[in-house]
């Protein structure tokens, strides 16, 4: 992508070539912009808003009538420099976590949560983000240390459908009806009866004690006010305090506060570790093949790139678990997870400083510097034979060993 004025265009859905920026001239362009940021390198282009309606979603906002071309040119130049700091394969990666990291780096801004009452979650990260399920992707990156999280707000959500669109109401403790009201309490001094005022009211609008039937005529001498109480119009219950209940406005489920899900929403910013990963020396030359790293943990990609940049020999072993589904079905996921954690911990202890174990979603990996594949295969076969003998469940460990040549483009 160059930054000449000739390429300053409004990209449209189906364009064969992107320009240097995404320009929103009217309301119809907003939907196109949302699509373009999910395509190829569209997430690394600045968004120029000429409608002054996108707010923080835009990188440059100019009200109608203002000359925006010089300002847009400086923004495009800055974005071009930030893009060039990244490896070509990383700029075009379709992997969600890499796209989000690159997006935050090039745009130099946070992933900012905001209230969105029209959504089931109650909050959103805007319409111009480059990945679906952005919250889940950001949570994984934060857990790995590549993003830092800052609390935005806490929400209650339906335990059945997950919606945060809830009606919060006071309810009768007896029948859970919302048909409740505060009523005045009357104390009959002669017989000591205490009850809500409606119980004392007669059909001809006089007051009579429901206990002894005497008429109450003189406030202060035969009766007095004694505060207020809760009265249910549905079941007649009288009490002091209502309960708080929730009704989901999407699925109509009814539940109390103890069953409501607590959801914490965060703002996210790229961390020092995230920046170091993106700008690692090995990412621009001799980088590992993008095809082979589509599913690898980011920590492992960084190790591989650093080793390639230093032109060091290394080997990588993948531990896959053939019996996972069988164990989960017969003994439960807890047994499988515990056995896998035990294996990893035992392997880390046996390797010591000679290797690095990196955990992935479905597989685990052992990185060994300055060691060829054959030596790694022999050594890990011996180590694993001792590790698996101590496990509660037979994980069916499938060992595959790769060497440096397998990861070069």
Question: What are the SSEs and their pairings?
Answer:
Blueprint: E1 22-24, H1 27-36, E2 47-49, E3 60-61, H2 69-84, H3 88-91, H4 96-107, E4 114-116, E5 122-124, H5 134-143, E6 147-157, E7 166-171, E8 180-188, E9 194-196, H6 197-200, E10 207-208, E11 215-216, E12 223-232, E13 238-239, E14 243-248, E15 254-256, E16 261-270, H7 272-278, H8 298-309, E17 314-321, H9 324-331, H10 333-351, E18 356-359, E19 364-369, H11 373-388, E20 397-403
Parallel strand pairs: 1-2, 2-3
Antiparallel strand pairs: 4-5, 6-16, 7-14, 8-9, 8-12, 10-11, 12-13, 14-15, 17-19, 17-20, 18-19
Pfam families: TackOD1
Protein name: Thaumarchaeal output domain-containing protein
Domain Thaumarchaeal output: 91-268
Short description, anyone?
The protein is α+β, with helices and mostly antiparallel strands and about 400 residues long. It contains eleven helices and 20 strands.
Q: Which spans have pLDDT < 50 for at least 5 consecutive residues?
A: 1-18, 281-292
CATH architecture of the domain at 280-407: 2-Layer Sandwich
Strand residue percentage: 25-35%
N-to-C span: 23 Å
Number of strands: 20
CATH topology of the domain at 280-407, by name, is Alpha-Beta Plaits
Strand order of the largest sheet: 9-8-12-13
Largest sheet: 4 strands, antiparallel
Looking at CATH, the homologous superfamily of the domain at 280-407 is Reverse transcriptase/Diguanylate cyclase domain
Give the overall silhouette: flat
How many H/I helical runs? 11
Q: Please identify the top-level CATH class of the domain at 280-407.
A: Alpha Beta
Organism: Flaviflagellibacter deserti
Protein name: Thaumarchaeal output domain-containing protein
Domain Thaumarchaeal output: 91-268
């Amino acid at each position: 992508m160059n930054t000449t004025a000739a390429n300053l265009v409004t990209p449209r859905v189906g364009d064969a070539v992107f320009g240097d920026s995404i320009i929103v001239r009217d309301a119809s362009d907003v939907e196109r912009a949302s699509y373009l940021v999910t395509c190829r390198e569209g997430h690394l282009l600045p968004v120029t808003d000429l409608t002054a309606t996108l707010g923080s979603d835009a990188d440059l906002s100019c009200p109608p009538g203002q000359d925006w071309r010089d300002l847009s040119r400086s923004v495009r130049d800055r974005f071009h420099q930030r893009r060039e700091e990244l490896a070509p394969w990383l700029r075009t990666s379709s992997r969600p976590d890499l796209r989000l990291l690159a997006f935050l780096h090039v745009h130099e801004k946070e992933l900012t949560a905001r209230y969105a009452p029209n959504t089931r979650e109650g909050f959103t990260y805007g319409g111009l983000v480059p990945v679906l399920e952005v919250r889940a992707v950001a949570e994984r990156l934060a857990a790995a240390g590549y993003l830092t999280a800052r609390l935005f707000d806490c929400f209650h959500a339906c335990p059945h459908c997950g919606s945060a669109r809830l009606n919060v109401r006071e309810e009768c403790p007896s029948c859970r009806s919302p048909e409740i009201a505060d009523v005045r309490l009357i104390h009959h001094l002669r017989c000591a009866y205490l009850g809500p005022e409606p119980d004392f009211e007669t059909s001809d609008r006089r007051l009579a004690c429901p206990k002894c039937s005497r008429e109450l005529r003189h406030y202060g001498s035969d009766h007095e006010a004694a505060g207020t109480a809760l009265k249910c119009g549905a079941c007649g219950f009288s009490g002091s305090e209502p309960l708080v209940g929730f009704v989901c406005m999407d699925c109509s489920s009814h539940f109390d506060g103890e069953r409501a899900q607590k959801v914490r929403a965060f703002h996210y910013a790229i961390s020092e570790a995230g920046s170091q990963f993106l700008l690692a020396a090995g990412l621009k030359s001799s980088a590992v093949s993008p095809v082979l790293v589509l599913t690898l943990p980011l920590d492992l990609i960084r190790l591989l790139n650093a080793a390639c940049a230093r032109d060091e020999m290394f080997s990588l072993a993948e531990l896959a678990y053939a019996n996972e589904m069988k164990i989960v079905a017969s003994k439960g996921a807890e047994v499988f997870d515990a056995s896998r954690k035990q294996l990893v911990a035992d392997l880390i202890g046996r390797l010591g400083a000679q290797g690095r174990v990196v955990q992935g979603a479905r597989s685990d990996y052992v990185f060994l510097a300055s060691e060829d594949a054959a030596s790694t295969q022999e050594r890990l076969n011996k180590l694993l034979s001792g590790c698996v003998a101590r496990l509660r469940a037979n994980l069916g460990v499938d060992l595959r060993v790769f060497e440096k040549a397998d990861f070069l483009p």
